[in-house]
Structure formats: structure tokens, C-alpha cells
Amino acid sequence: MKVAVLKGGRSLERQVSLRSGAQIEDALQRLGHETVVIDVGPELVKQVRAAKPDVAFIALHGRDGEDGAVQELLGAIGVPYTGSGPSACIRCADKVLAKHLMRDAGVPTPEFHSFNETAFRELGAAAALTDIERSLGFPLVVKPAGQGSALGIKFARSSEDVPSALLAAFSYDRKLLLERYVKGRDLAVSVLDSEDGSEAVALPVVEAVPRDEDFYDFEARYQIGRTAFVCPAELPQELAAQAQKLALQVYKLLGCKGFARVDLMLEQASGELWVLETNAIPGFTETSLLPQAADAAGIGFDELVSRILLSAPAR
Amino acid sequence: MATDKRTRRARPAAHELVRYEGLFAARTRGMRSSAMREMMALTERPEVISLAGGLPDTSTFAPELYAKLMARVAAESTARALQYGPTGGMAVVMEGIVKVMEAEGTIVDPEDVIVTTGGQQVIDLVCKTLIDPGDVIVAEAPTYPGAVPTFSAYEADVVQIEMDAEGMPIDALEGTLDALAGEGRRPKFIYTIPNFQNPGGVTMSLERRRRLVEVARERELLILEDNPYGLLRYEGDPLPTLYSLDASNARRGGASDLVIYLGTFSKILSPGVRLGWAVAPRPVLEKLNLGKQGADLCSSPVTQLFVAAYLDEQDWMGYIQTLRDLYRKRRDTMLEALSKHFGDQARWTKPQGGLFIWATLPQYIDTTDLLARALESENVAFVPGRAAYMDGRGAASMRLNFAGIREQDIREGIRRIGKVVDEQVGLFGTLTRNGDGS
């Protein structure tokens, strides 16, 4: 098969995407496919047309790649691609939309409030902050609505911290959310479609255990050496099964295809599971969680790539 | 079918990486990539005006001259150029180094000099020689961002002293030294960039230089004097180096026994030649030499001979004067642009030389986040202030390079950053409950 690997782009996660793309390209070649690599930019449509691939493997993270824009374009020019379609991408990339959908569907997600810049500029949203702080409690988490990496996520420990945390989040997106902080264990469940796309399967749960003392350092997450990954996570079987069930429910709720990764928290105090967000295109690097989870399920990297590739045209 | 002949090796799976994890030395935990570093990679896009680099402008060096000097190296010393050289450096370069230091009023004995692979290697070798895990280094705040990973790699405990307009306040230094002494700790060395500090842009006053040397002498501490930009002064009178202040003391017999001096050709000639040097007390020099043997045996004889030929036959002070004139104009352009576009909401240093201006915004702005916005919406980049601190401070500041940037790009770059800052300041006003902006 001729496969165009789409990587890079100009999102803040460009570097991770380049590494993901390189891994995927190598795997595709080992699998005997012909590959064309495209660093996504203004020439994307022309380049894809010229390459005439059978399938596009989208290894982009963050803006453009994960928010549905590239999927929309590929659909318009009739090129099959891996992973979720535009609507699911939009639902995953916008954390606020995803959380609303989850809350409406009865999926446990931490309590939150969301605003765009306009709410503050034109509706005096700041006056509601005291009420929000009271209901969410401290510390609370402030996140840009549409940023996939750790960038821009801030913890506010008191009212005084809130305005600058909001400002930081607004540096990445015009919309943000304030969320109740769930103290506990960091879990991720990757979901993978069968090759014919007929059935989705939850892979073993991965736990990210920060090595440094500081819980609040999001940079520590998913960084080799600073975060230890335990896969499968050491959880009672029942709890692991519950996390997988939740992940599958969210995967279907958001309309994901091919693969995705659902991030959850296991709350220390209550023992409850909470879904934070879903990544429509999680990383494919050595230390990324999807390949780790697949590996734990006995699916090697090449097989993972092969399965995702084969499920692509089944849309 | 493979499209190239590169071997498509299977990469290690996650569970195999755990094996490496157990092999890494404990000190590698201090070596980390970061979200900021990932973001800095985006600054290399061609459409981005980047004021982030630490670059001099090498386009001012005539290609014909480069060719001529290399031809001379080839004609006179091909075999030597292609051979290993002495670990401490070639005698011809050391003689050149002595001349360069003399131009700054510092007289040294070539026997006290070691030639290194860039000034950066001096920082590495000094740490390699002096620092055990947990040892204290006293540095300025902010400090050279390039020294931060080196200090981290050697697991030093870096105590940073906030500078003012005259550099490191010596009273604060003494207070810190006393506090450390109270804990039974003594810094292995004090790291300072007295001239046009990177990134702070400030110059240590003569009075403080004298006192720093005195304090170091009283307390028997070493000083690492990093002086890459001393000759790139655009105004004001040159100040003596710490090395010369100590060495000129009659009792020392012309050599300092407490200052390790770091020099480099990177900013006065070319960073591409990768040549720097240290002047150090003999016992330290010997250890640096042994450390260098283990690191790279010797610095490139090719570039050493190139530099020696350059210093021998060319008007190198004339070239430095060309750089001074060019960089002075660019500094003035940046200062003017800052006044126009940053206005009241920021303050910035007015360096008398060097490459950088350090600008500080209101405390509620984190320049790491600001950089994301600046890159995304305005295609402009700078170095976030956190990079110059070991302890997370500096978040509201940024380092701006003026030396390596064309004037029109300086104006446009500062205009764009100013626009993003204005937006953030305006937005912040709406995020506070009383609208008081506090």
C-alpha cells in the first residue's frame, strides 16, 4: 500500500509529532508499505494530491491535526485516513465540549466551568469567580480548552493565583476551563479498533507515576526519567475493568474511530474514577502510552500500526 | 517497498526502555527536556522573527578572507592541521589569546592558559573538576541559560543572587555566604559574567568588582569570570577584569590565584570555530587539562591554526570595531522600539555592550505562556526568563537578542511582542474581580 505519513505541522506539539511520525514511517516500511512523508504546511493539499496515497496516516498532534481540520481536507479530496473523523476530532480537541457531552451522558468528569475571552471582556465573568472557587475548592486547575500538551495548565492554590492562571491558559486558546482538582492516580486507557473497524477494544490500563515530589508539575508527565509508567497499572481487577469500560463508553460517546487514548484520575479520597479528556491522536513515540498499552496486550508496534492502517478505509 | 536504503530497525518498545532507565546515571535526572525546549524548536520556522538566539552576526566576515586564511593554513601546515594537537592548546593560539586579553588590559602568562572547545567547555570542565553532587555554586540571577544544564548535569546546588543595575550586590552575596556558612557549606565557586551580562544586560560596577575580589580572597573562594563580550562595548569606559584586579595586586606576582577566567572567540570572531579558553591558577589548570583529555583530547587544530593565522595577519581589532558599530546601532534600534511598543508596562536593561536586553513585564505574565501566544499569533520569539533561573523564578522576564538581527526585523519583532503584551495586559484587567489589575 502507498501510505502518506502526515507529521510535524506548526502546533506546539510539533516535536512529538515528528517523533511519532518517524516511528510510524519506520514501521510502515518494515511492513512492506511504500511511504511518503509530508511535513504538514501550506502545501498540504498539493502534496497529498501529488503523492496519490492509498491512505494517509495522520501522526499530527495538537492544532490542525487533532482538531479535525486535516481530516476535513482529506475527506474533501477523497483520501482515506487513519483515526477519527472531523466530528470526533472536534469533540476530543475541545475539552469543554467533551466534558459537556460526558456530563450529559452521565460519565463522571470533574466539576468544571468554562469561559471564553469574551465572557470576561464583555460579560464581566470575573465577578462570578468567587462563586466558582467556592464550588470547585482549592487547589483548582485552569486549562486551555484546546491544548493537548501540558503547556498552559496551571494550578491555582488561592483566589490570588486565579487571574494569572486564567491569563496563562488564554495564551493557548480563546477558551478555557476551571476544573475541580482530583487528587489521586493518573491513569490512561487506550482504545483500539479491530482491523475491520467493527469492534473497539480497551487496552490494559497504564498508570503514570510522577517521580518528583511536585504533583503540580505537568511537565513531568510522560517524560522518560521523570515519570515512571506502570503497565498494566497495579489496580484491583474490578477497578481496571471499570476504567476500561468507562474508556470504551467515552470512545463511543465521542464517536472515535481507529484508536484514541482516554485519560482518567482515580481519586485517592473517594476511590472514584473520573474521566479528564480524550486524545484523538495520542503519541506514537517510544515512551508514549498507546504503544506501551498495546505492547502489554501483546500487540507489538508494527502490528499496532498495521491494525490502525487497515482500519482506516473501513470508515 | 522501502523508499531509501536506511535500515528500518525496530525501535525499542516501552518495556525495553525500562532497561535503559536502570542504566542511566543518577545525574541524568537533572538533564531534562522540557515543554519550553519543545516550543523553542518552533522558533526556527522561517516565517518567525526570532529574537531568541544567542547569535552574533557572522555574515559580516568576508568570505574571501575566510578562504585566504584557510589557504594559508593549508599551505603552511596541512599535516599539523590534520593531526591531533596538544591537549592544552597550540602555542600559536595561546600567544594570540594573550594579545586579545591584553586588549582588555589583562596581562596573562601563556603558560596559565588552556585552549578549549568554546567557552562552554570551560564551564563544563570547571564543574567536572570542582563539583561533587550537592556542592554549592553561587551565580547571578538571572544567569547564563547555557550554564543551567551544565550545573544541573553535575548536580550542583545553585544559589542565585538577584542583580540590580550594577550587577551582583556584594552585600547580598556576603549575606548568602554567611547563611551558607551557618549551614556548614561553602560554595565551590562564584559564577559571574561581569560585562554586559547574559541575559541580564547589566555590567558590574568597578566598586563591586573590587569588593567581589576582596570577599573571595577573605573567604578563600574561587571565582569563575565568564567574559565573552568584554570587547563588545558600545559606550562608556572599559572596566578591569576581575582577573586583572586580583592579579595586579603586587603580592600575586601578576597571576590571580582565585579567578578562573573564561574567554571565547565566539563573539569577537566566530562561534563556528568552537574555540575558547581559560586562564586558571596552576593547580586548577592541571585538573582542567586532565579533564579535557578525557573530554576531547584537544580542540580542533584546524580551527586553532585558522584563528592563529587570523590574529597574526589581520586587523582583528578593526573587525571588532565593525561589530561594535553594527551592534550599537542594533541595540539603539531595539531600545527605541521597546520605548515605542512596550511603554509603561515593562522595564528593560540598557546594556553598554554585549548581545542582549532583558525585559521584565508585570508579574502576572508568564513569558513561557506568552511565547506560545507570540509564536502562534504573531510569529515572533524570545527566550522566556525561566530559562535563566534554576528555581522557577524569572517567569515575568524575557531575553532579547539584538546583535544577530537586522534592524527592520528588530523593529518588527518588538512591535509584534508589544502587541501580544498589550493584549495580555488588557485581558488581565478583565480577569480580576475588582478590575484593579492587582
What is the domain total for the residues of chain B? 2
Look at the structure and give the mean pLDDT of chain B.
92
The CATH topology assignment of the largest domain in chain A is D-amino Acid Aminotransferase, Chain A, domain 1
Taking pLDDT < 50 over at least 5 consecutive residues as the criterion, the unreliable ranges of chain B are: none
Number of strands of chain A: 13
Task: Summarize, please.
By secondary structure, chain A is of the alpha+beta class. Helices cover 35% and strands 23% of the residues of chain A. Chain A folds into three domains: 2-82, Rossmann fold (3-Layer(aba) Sandwich), CATH 3.40.50.20; 91-108 and 182-310, ATP-grasp fold, B domain (D-amino Acid Aminotransferase, Chain A, domain 1), CATH 3.30.470; 112-180, Dna Ligase, domain 1, CATH 3.30.1490.
Structural write-up:
- The complex is a heterodimer of chains A (315) and B (438).
- Chain A is α+β, with helices and mostly antiparallel strands and 315 residues long.
- Chain A folds into three domains: 2-82, Rossmann fold (3-Layer(aba) Sandwich); 91-108 and 182-310, D-amino Acid Aminotransferase, Chain A, domain 1, CATH 3.30.470; 112-180, ATP-grasp fold, A domain (Dna Ligase, domain 1, 2-Layer Sandwich), CATH 3.30.1490.20.
- Chain A is built from eleven helices and 13 strands.
- In chain A, the strands form three sheets. In chain A, strands 8, 9, 10, 11, 12 and 13 form a six-stranded antiparallel β-sheet that branches. Chain A has a four-stranded antiparallel β-sheet with strand order 4-7-5-6, with helices on both faces. Chain A has a three-stranded parallel β-sheet with strand order 2-1-3, with helices on both faces.
- In chain A, helix 1 packs across helix 11 (301-310).
- Chain A is globular.
- Chain B has two domains: 32-60 and 318-426, Aspartate Aminotransferase, domain 1 (Alpha-Beta Complex); 81-313, Aspartate Aminotransferase, domain 2 (3-Layer(aba) Sandwich), CATH 3.40.640.10.
- Chain B has helices at 14-23, 35-41, 63-81, 91-102, 118-130, 147-153, 170-182, 206-218, 242-247, 282-296, 301-313, 316-341, 367-378, 407-431; strands at 49-50, 113-116, 136-141, 157-162, 189-192, 222-226, 259-264, 276-279, 347-348, 356-360, 380-381, 383-384, 397-401.
- In chain B, helix 6 links the parallel strand 3 (136-141) and strand 4.
- In chain B, helix 4 (91-102) packs across helix 11 and helix 5 (118-130) packs across helix 10.
- The interface between A and B is large, with 53 and 43 residues.
